[in-house]
Amino acid sequence: MTKRRHNANSAAREASGSNDQSASRSEADENNASASSSAASDSPSTPAGSASKRHVTPKSHPTETELAPAPPHPVQRASAFSVAQEQLNRVAKAMDLDDDLRAHLSMPRRELIVHFPVEMDDGSLRNFTGFRVHHNTALGPTKGGIRYHPDVSLDESRALAMWMTWKCALMNLPYGGAKGGVIVNPKELSERELQAMTRRYTSEISLFIGPEMDIPAPDVGTDARVMAWVMDTYSMNRGYSVPAVTTGKPLAVGGSAGREYATGLGITYVTRAMLRRRMGLHIEDATVAIQGFGNVGSWAARAMHERGAKVVAVSDVNGAVYDERGLDPRHLKSFAEETGSVVGYPRADSLTNEELLELKVDVLIPAALEGQITRENADKINARVIAEGANGPTTPEADRILEDKGVLIIPDILCNAGGVVVSYFEWVQDLQAFSWDESEIRLQMKRKLLDNLDDVLAITLQTGQDLRTAAYTIAIQRIVDAVKYRGIYP
Ligand code: NAD
User: How high is the mean pLDDT of the chain?
Assistant: First the structure.
């Protein structure tokens, strides 16, 4: 990498600136692929996102100016953004990247914090805080999920936006990274409240989104239904339908075939190829444990199972279940949908989430939240391979401990990129008003994932680097090239 000097001030200026589709398919088919806007709250002592009990009669809604501002939500976990910056710094050093450029890439381009009220079913007002962060726009508009979770924060959105930048660049997609969300447990809201909150949040961030600017997608706590509300709200304010403003929508409103299971299926394609190429292990002989049984975890479980792997344990926020003979992911999903959790599944033993992470399996798939494998528990991991389904599940300290133990880590920006790849296909289809069939989507997704996997493996062979460093090097180099050709404005 050639060092490139440019003006630090200008860089700093710029820096501130169910469809029950099946994840299964015949192997023959698969093998065709080449291997702060501020509103207000009514009580300063009410934490942002918590219910306010002030009653209003249905006919006299208070204006926003009658409501006091919500206090910021405290960051409770270790800073995900510090982790993301540390990962960047480490790779930038290995690349001998110019320090001004590293500093430019280490901060988001734009950040928006919004506080807004929503009327609850009982007539009270509840105040929410939300975020939208654009990390980098050198390659195109930004792309990234919307998360509804009590721990959403600016710090977390910054980290997730940065990781999206690297993921899109690694996949050679014409996007930068974004992320956002609302501090809320969506399960506490009624359907009407969830819709009202989504529509108001969308209005608040509408300055920041659009098919040519930033295209949100589902993430933790959001789904196709939420994406349809975001799309509809944005469209209503434009006066015409704009399906390309979000991805991960239902098929009926411009969604793409294959998007729902894309992340889980992509994890399976990438993991299967890595097992074979790096360990000489066939997926049919592999045992798998999965942390998280939402969109990513449940579809990864099913795709792994359908290709012959034995999924021995899965968990959700309430706990884990284990069966050494292998679980049936479809049956388990029906059970979890009926009861609200995998816990209590009659055909399995119970485990804690900690115990699941420590199981002796071939493949551990963290598919819940970031920061799950840390220096506290890395030494207790007994898996041979960690396939990162979640974004940022492993901290840099844990990376080092696991590397010393000989654990192969398939980094998130490669492993879980199937979702954003099919989101890209959805965006292209919406822009062209032309839809592709499911087999085409799967073929193109597989090709993109495996071509980029080849590039990552080639770097590891040339340099002896681990997979994360190699993947980051490719991604950062693509962005550096774009910045170089575009130049620093003005
Ligand atoms: P989701 O809301 O559908 O599911 C999250 C799952 O994790 C749930 O089963 C929940 O109970 C579980 N969970 C939460 N906290 C937990 C904990 N402490 N221990 C164990 N389980 C816990 O979310 P999702 O869309 O499946 O996303 C999961 C992860 O994958 C996130 O890191 C997300 O950023 C990442 N990701 C999602 C996509 C996508 O297409 N949805 C794409 C790429 C990456």
Answer: 88
- Structural domain contains residue 55: yes
- What is residue 183's predicted lDDT score, i.e. its pLDDT? 98
In this structure, are residues 364 and 402 in contact, taking their beta carbons and an 8 Å threshold?
A: no
Q: Would you call the peptide bond into 490 cis, given omega within 30 degrees of 0 as the criterion? A: yes
> What total of structural domains would you count in the chain?
1
Please report, for the domain that includes residue 228, its CATH number. 3.40.50.10860
Q: Which has the closest alpha carbon to 142: 214, 212, 218, 205?
A: 214
Residue 27 has pLDDT above 70, yes or no: no
Q: Is 172 left (phi over 0), alpha (psi -120 to 50) or beta?
A: left
Residue 15 lies in a domain: no
What is the atom index within ligand 1 of the atom nearest the CA of 259?
A: 40
pTM, entire model: 0.87
- Per-residue pLDDT band at 77 (split at 50, 70, 90): low
Pocket of ligand 1 (CB under 6 A): 145, 218-221, 263, 291-297, 315-317, 353, 367-369, 389-391, 416, 419
Residue 458 lies in a domain: no
Domain presence at residue 323: no
Nearest atom within ligand 1 for CA of residue 293: 9
CA angle 54, 55, 56 (to 5 degrees): 125
Tell me the per-residue pLDDT of 288-346, one tens digit each, with 9 for 90 and over: 999 999 999 999 999 999 999 999 999 999 999 999 999 999 999 999 999 999 999 99
Q: Which domain holds residue 153?
A: 36-254
Of the candidates 403, 352, 362, 354, the residue with the CA atom closest to the CA atom of residue 382: 362
